[in-house]
Amino acid sequence: MRIIFDRSTVIAAVTPLMCAVSNKNTLPAIEGILMRTVPGGIEMTTFDLEKGVRLFCSAEVLEEGYIILNAQKFYATIRAMGGRQIELVVDKNLGATILSGSSSYQMQAMRGEDFPGMPVLESERSFLLPQGILRALINQTAFAVAVNDQRAALNGCFFRVTEGQLLLVGCDSFRLAKCSADISIENLSADGRALDFSFIIPGKTLAELIRFLDDKTEGDELPEVRVYLTRKHVIFRFDELTLFSRIIDSEYLDYNRVLSGSDANHATLDRQELLGALERATLVTEEKVVGAVRSWVKLTFGGPKLEISSISSTGRIYDEVENYYYGEPIEIGFNNRYLIDTLRACTAERVTLSLTSPLMRMVVEPAEDEATLTDQVFMVVPVRMHD
């Protein structure tokens, strides 16, 4: 194999590939980039057995080849090289030499056939989604996705795609985010199946997907991403880049039942004012004291001002936020970080907090007169306060 790259082009191509490189040192091949020469350049793939990235990089192909190079070493080398062009030469014994100007670096390659088997990146079931809306919904739900929960489904974000609506749900048992958007979704399924798909994408995949999504939500021509569904994988195809991931094969929780209930107590207030007060409360709730348990924040409802307070072993804090409150007086405690993350995910200027009792979940949603790009409902579970 012999290939000549433009240095800036190959660096730009390899950068997104690094998100799907395994660092567990279990199989040398999945620590590498699979390189296959194609007309006009080279096809590069990384795959950590859960998610993968494939893209095309333009290059001058002098000799064809099919090899694997260690991703970290190759990436570090091309970034350190100083020339405008980078030449990659791989001999018959899989000795790889990277040349740029007067500099050269040698490393060992592996046979392309040693790369793990990957899913077929095509499917009869597919549809088009606007990138900006998808990005916004992920931003509003990903924070609530669990990490290493024993219930596999909660370690991912639930997607439901139907005619005219995209719905995402994230839940980690302590927080829940349910966000949707009424949008035009083009059904490209060749099997004639109606547009009604549900699947769960791992949280780690969402963190990488959002990096590739355009944030444009207004204008005549909005960027779109084509989504393919197979029995075990979901594939997101952009212009020259494909991100694919396994799907969590599990039933998701009944989120509508969790959110249901007749809340008799409601407070409407400015989201930024409440967020500012909670962030000031972190001086106490997140204070690092040896042997101390992280404290909770207490919200006291019952008058024209919401009282926010917290006490730790070394200090206390008190704040007030003006609100319109209807209901019985309630004192309720929360993990402060969970409240902050929830309010940051909400995009409304004013929010309504709905409660039933100090021991039951609180629902956070945009106030009735707020116009938002997406429909948003959040839930936070309280903590038991103690003296």
Concise account of the structure shown:
The protein has 387 residues and is of the alpha+beta class.
Word description of this protein:
This protein has helices at residues 7-17, 71-80, 131-141, 203-212, 255-259, 271-285, 336-345; strands spanning 2-6, 32-38, 41-47, 51-58, 60-63, 66-70, 85-90, 95-100, 103-108, 110-111, 125-130, 156-162, 165-171, 175-182, 186-187, 196-202, 224-229, 233-237, 241-246, 265-270, 297-301, 305-311, 316-326, 330-334, 350-355, 362-366, 375-380. Helix 1 (7-17) packs antiparallel against helix 2 and helix 6 runs antiparallel to helix 7. The protein folds into three domains: 2-114, DNA Polymerase III, Chain A, domain 2 (Roll); 125-253, DNA Polymerase III, Chain A, domain 2 (Roll); 261-380, DNA Polymerase III, Chain A, domain 2, CATH 3.10.150. The protein is of the alpha+beta class and 387 residues long. Strand 18 (233-237) and strand 19 form a beta hairpin. It is built from seven helices and 27 strands. A twelve-stranded antiparallel β-sheet has the order 16-12-13-14-27-26-25-20-23-22-21-24. A ten-stranded antiparallel β-sheet has the order 10-6-2-3-4-19-18-17-11-15.
